[in-house]
């Protein structure tokens, strides 16, 4: 019998057919919403907490603090509950109600603040002054190493080593850093494409960070190309994924898919994999699917 932890990872690759503009290109979405916590962040949350416990940085009963825009918080709350850890999550006040309720359901304390940068400052201050342990997904190597150990190898295996392009949203950048590290090792010719919002666009899960808040784990040399995604395009593609491909995902998935489709129209042939970060039910209280 499997434990909950055993169910994290090994998510399916699903071919995008009706939206694919190029018959000589295969496009696959990796459905990370199939993880038990509903997003790609289950992988990083497990590796960050498990590794900290193994090193002795924390122990059962420790108090954790973390800033999150949503999915990481849900994943951390879930994993913390399994290990008997108390956790407080600082969350932007404009986050969807589904996220807040999910975190609280797992027993986390949720503190709503004005913007992710404010949340990060709050968490760092509390870790420095109140004895809490900050996981700091933005600077924690265990974040991207979770994808080096699992997501990257799964993609390589499930495309029969044929992947030519990898597309991912960039938030903490853990997914793209870890997958790039692995995929470039097995085939340096694989192109790594990151997605960020256009100026003024707001896409949950994809960030254009101010220089002072750029994640410390981010290494620009591991990304071959950065594509700017407009909010309207991400919304439109998220709806198309549901209505034409049967994939019910969040807006960052729509953003990554729109980049993959644009890329497919530019190349002669290839195998493109993009990350579907989470499930669409995280956004039912918004007008995303309206």
From TrEMBL:
Ranges of residues in domain Tryptophan synthase beta chain-like PALP: 6-278
Pathway given in the UniProt record: Amino-acid biosynthesis; L-cysteine biosynthesis; L-cysteine from L-serine: step 2/2
Cofactor(s) needed: pyridoxal 5'-phosphate
UniProt KW keywords: Amino-acid biosynthesis, Cysteine biosynthesis, Pyridoxal phosphate, Transferase
Entry-linked Gene3D superfamilies: 3.40.50.1100
Catalysed transformations (reactions): O-acetyl-L-serine + hydrogen sulfide = L-cysteine + acetate
GO function terms (MF aspect): cysteine synthase activity
EC number, UniProt record: 2.5.1.47
Family from the record: Belongs to the cysteine synthase/cystathionine beta-synthase family.
Protein name: Cysteine synthase
The species this protein was found in: Mucilaginibacter antarcticus
Species lineage: Bacteria, Pseudomonadati, Bacteroidota, Sphingobacteriia, Sphingobacteriales
């Amino acid at each position: 019998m499997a434990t909950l932890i055993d169910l994290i990872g090994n998510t399916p690759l699903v071919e995008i057919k009706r939206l694919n503009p190029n018959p000589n290109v295969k496009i696959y979405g990796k459905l990370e919403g199939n993880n038990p916590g509903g997003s790609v962040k289950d992988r990083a949350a497990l590796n960050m907490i498990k590794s900290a416990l193994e090193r002795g940085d924390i122990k059962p009963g420790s108090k954790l603090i973390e800033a999150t825009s949503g999915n990481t918080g849900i994943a951390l709350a879930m994993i913390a509950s399994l290990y008997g850890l108390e956790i407080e999550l600082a969350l932007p006040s404009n986050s969807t109600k589904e996220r807040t309720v999910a975190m609280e359901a797992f027993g986390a304390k949720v503190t709503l603040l004005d913007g992710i940068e404010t949340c990060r400052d709050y968490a760092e201050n509390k870790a420095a002054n109140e004895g809490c342990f900050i996981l700091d997904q933005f600077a924690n190597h265990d974040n991207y190493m979770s994808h080096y150990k699992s997501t990257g190898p799964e993609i390589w295996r499930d495309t029969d080593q044929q992947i030519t392009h990898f597309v991912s949203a960039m938030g903490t950048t853990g997914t793209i850093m870890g997958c790039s590290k692995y995929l470039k090792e097995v085939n340096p010719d694989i192109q790594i494409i990151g997605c960020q919002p256009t100026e003024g666009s707001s896409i949950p899960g994809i960030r254009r960070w101010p220089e002072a808040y750029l994640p410390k784990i981010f290494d620009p040399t591991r990304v071959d190309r950065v594509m700017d995604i407009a909010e309207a395009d991400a919304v439109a593609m998220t709806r198309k994924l549901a209505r034409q491909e049967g994939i019910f995902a969040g807006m960052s998935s729509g953003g990554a898919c729109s980049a993959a489709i644009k890329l497919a129209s530019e190349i002669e042939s290839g195998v493109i994999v993009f990350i579907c970060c989470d499930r669409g039910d995280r956004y039912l209280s918004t007008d995303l699917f309206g």
